[in-house]
Amino acid sequence: MLLPRIFAPARVSIQPSSVTWIPSSRVVEALRAANGISATSPTLSFVRHATHQAQGRANGAKDGPGKRLGAKKSGGEWVIPGNIIFRQRGTAWFPGENCAMGRDHCIYALESGYVRYYRDPLKHPERQYIGICFEKDGKLPYPPNAARRRKLNMLPVQRDLEAITADGEMATADAPASTSSGHLSMGRDYSFRQANWQIGRAAEKANVQVRQFVPGDRWRAWQKSNARKIISAEKRKLRNASKAAKAAKKKK
């Protein structure tokens, strides 16, 4: 017996004058045998089931809100670190000076400055970049091998350590650098300062008189402290006893 899965539309030729069947192939005979239809039956029924569900949107579910893509800061606008300058899908714009790209391709600022939309043919002939310029009248891209301004809008300058005085100022012809205090050391914050032991002796060098510390009798101080603790414990016991007596009188 054949399975229903082989049920498929089959062409059957019927003559309207007489009810006689002319099978087009052996498939019709197999279908008649499977369905229990005799050869003289005038009808041959087929059942066709849907194989896919009809697709369609309900209440506009697929028409969601816009993603608000595009420029968020115009050229020449002041931004601070973390401000999003441009939202996009893909890489229509690339991060330039003092900018970075997020995982959703948005361009955001790394430093405080003014927004610049520009092209850099030396870097890439076709890409367009978004960067941050520290000067309001500055232009991007910077010339090749030019000094780059970083944090605090400062340029790196070579300094002579021997020409720095003990106060941290640059030595001049009138006030040469003092050699008695030694060379100043540069700290992690890129500032030149004296050593801690030199700073600690500043009062001594300025002849500032400080009252001497006179240690007291620690044994006598401990005796007084212990006596105060004993007296406070006795007072606490008396207060608790009076509270308990008042509570007992109220119950009676």
Anisotropy-based shape: flat
- Terminal Cα span: 101 Å
Give the C-level CATH assignment of the domain at 70-153: Mainly Beta
- Mean pLDDT comes to 78
What is the beta-strand fraction? Answer: 15-25%
How much helix is in the residues?
Answer: 10-25%
Poorly predicted ranges: 175-180
What is the annotated CATH architecture of the domain at 70-153? Beta Barrel
CATH topology of the domain at 70-153: OB fold (Dihydrolipoamide Acetyltransferase, E2P)
What structural class do the secondary elements suggest?
A: alpha+beta
Major sheet summary line: 4 strands, antiparallel
In angstroms, what is the radius of gyration? 47 Å
The helix count comes to 4
Going across the major beta sheet, what is the strand order? 3-5-8-7
Number of strands: 12
What is the fourth-level CATH superfamily of the domain at 70-153?
RNA polymerase II/Efflux pump adaptor protein, barrel-sandwich hybrid domain
Tell me the series of helices and strands, N- to C-terminal: EEHEEEEEEEEEEHHH
GO molecular function: structural constituent of ribosome
Organism: Polyplosphaeria fusca
Family: Belongs to the bacterial ribosomal protein bL27 family.
Pfam families: Ribosomal_L27
Structural notes for this entry:
- The chain has about 250 residues and is of the alpha+beta class.
- Among the domains are: about 1-45, no CATH class; about 70-155, OB fold (Dihydrolipoamide Acetyltransferase, E2P) (Beta Barrel), CATH 2.40.50.100; about 160-205, no CATH class.
- Helix content is about 20%, strand content about 15%.
- It is built from four helices and twelve strands.
- A four-stranded antiparallel β-sheet has the order 3-5-8-7, with no helix packed on it. A four-stranded mixed β-sheet has the order 4-9-10-6, with no helix packed on it.
